[in-house]
């Protein structure tokens, strides 16, 4: 089920700036049994994106009620909130008075096996490099062609994600998850001030594990890390089993972070 | 009037990947009295974009007929063709069999005064810098937040465009037009292999004036150019009068290119 500006509807105007220019933001939020443990963080990131793009932030309480409405009767679902700058004349200039378009839709939870949670996921090393754009880094905007191109690089179902680097040889993230490494006994997650999306699960882990460093992470450090894992607000905390031919074993850091994740109220697996 | 996949319609599915990820391309094409002198070049660029993004190219003859249909009865209009990868499941992976969405819509021609054509246009120097992304450079894709941010930097109606640079100090383009400069007596237009959109009017001028160089154009050369002008397939060839406090006078090169433009069958001004 889907609501557009609060009304049951599954279409938007072909003149919406979200479609014309990718002029908007989105969030994907995991719900289990009526609860979304990271809801407040999703709202914080959406508000930060709205401020960056100067789109009025919708009322979070209203979004919550719309989420309940579209997810009604589903034990588990992924909520996608899309917020665009709304209708516009032809041309890049944002309208002086924007009337944003708000799309709230429920999708089935992706299947996540216990094996993935315990044994880990295999990564393709993407040739697509993320461009440096500090003005858009961190927020979850609708300009996602880099991720589409990167995700199109493989179709082997045994490979679950791709490792994305920037043009300076730093590891940044997966296509739809953040990256953590344990290098010389220290937990690290890449700085995201030039590219990448600052994930909500990543923010949760950084607050729960304040010793984790946020810094540039050269690819060569990533490849010699003692642990490598991904965080996603939908898929949770997943160990990386391999990047191409480089193999990793899940270690104590990812297990501690997975325990924290389960403690938030998320399940380990999804049928 | 608007056609979506050939049918009169003014909306698209809220699940369209054009909206979800900006996963698509567009063209804006100037029509006068049933003719679009640059039509073949627009089709070439659209095909190049389709190949880059691996979206099936629609039949150009069919697009032409849809253009005639939506523009029927209008002496002058701007046609926008938007082509997206179509519907998709949630997630970046492109569907194996894409059924693209094709939106063909007619918009009023923007007003262009003879004064602008003869005297020129004022440019704001944008703080927004274009990111280097060779995989997306040149094509007219739907990820246009950089242009939206740049265009939002000014609202003085006396300023007609913005000068966009990359992060290496090269001038690249305006927000919605290409840039030409005459430096030390030589015509130059910036190389667009790392960022920017390779305009159809620019391609026309490069073919008609083969002495024009395509190379990196440092901002300092742009600022000391003897002539500076913009090319746009909608607005034509417009001299630049000023970039901030740096003033320019239209010279023989822009006048020659404007004569070429008029020779294609475009009018000088639009009411």
From TrEMBL, chains A, B:
Its EC number is 4.1.3.38. It catalyses: 4-amino-4-deoxychorismate = 4-aminobenzoate + pyruvate + H(+). Keywords: Folate biosynthesis, Lyase, Pyridoxal phosphate. InterPro entries: Aminodeoxychorismate_lyase_IV, Aminotrans_IV, Aminotransferase-like, BCAT-like_C, BCAT-like_N, Class-IV_PLP-Dep_Aminotrnsfr. Pfam families: Aminotran_4 (PF01063). GO terms for molecular function: 4-amino-4-deoxychorismate lyase activity; pyridoxal phosphate binding. Pathway: Cofactor biosynthesis; tetrahydrofolate biosynthesis; 4-aminobenzoate from chorismate: step 2/2. One of its GO terms (biological process) is folic acid biosynthetic process. One of its GO terms (cellular component) is cytosol. Its cofactor is pyridoxal 5'-phosphate. CDD domains: ADCL_like. Homodimer. Belongs to the class-IV pyridoxal-phosphate-dependent aminotransferase family. This is Aminodeoxychorismate lyase.
């Amino acid at each position: 089920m889907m609501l557009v500006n609060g009304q049951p509807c599954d279409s938007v105007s072909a003149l919406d700036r979200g479609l014309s220019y990718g002029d908007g933001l989105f969030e994907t939020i995991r719900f289990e049994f009526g609860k979304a443990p990271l809801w407040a963080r999703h709202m914080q990131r959406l508000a930060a994106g709205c401020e960056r793009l100067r789109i009025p932030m919708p009322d979070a309480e209203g979004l919550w009620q719309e989420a309940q409405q579209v997810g009604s009767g589903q034990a588990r679902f992924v909520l996608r909130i899309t917020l665009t700058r709304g209708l516009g004349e032809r041309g890049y200039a944002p309208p002086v008075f924007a009337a944003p378009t708000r799309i709230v839709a429920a999708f089935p939870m992706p299947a996540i096996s216990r094996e993935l949670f315990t044994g880990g996921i295999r990564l393709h090393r993407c040739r697509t490099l993320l461009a440096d754009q500090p003005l858009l880094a961190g927020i979850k905007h609708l300009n996602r062609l880099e991720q589409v191109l990167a995700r199109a690089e493989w179709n082997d179902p045994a490979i679950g994600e791709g490792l994305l680097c920037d043009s300076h040889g730093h590891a940044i993230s997966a296509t739809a998850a953040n990256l953590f490494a344990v290098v010389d006994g220290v937990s690290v997650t890449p700085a995201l001030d030039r590219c990448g999306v600052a994930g909500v699960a990543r923010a949760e882990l950084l607050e729960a594990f304040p010793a984790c460093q946020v810094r540039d992470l050269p690819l060569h450090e990533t490849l010699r890390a003692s642990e490598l894992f991904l965080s996603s607000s939908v898929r949770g905390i997943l160990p990386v089993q391999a990047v191409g031919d480089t193999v990793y074993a899940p270690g104590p850091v990812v297990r501690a972070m997975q325990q924290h994740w389960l403690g938030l109220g998320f399940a380990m697996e999804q049928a």
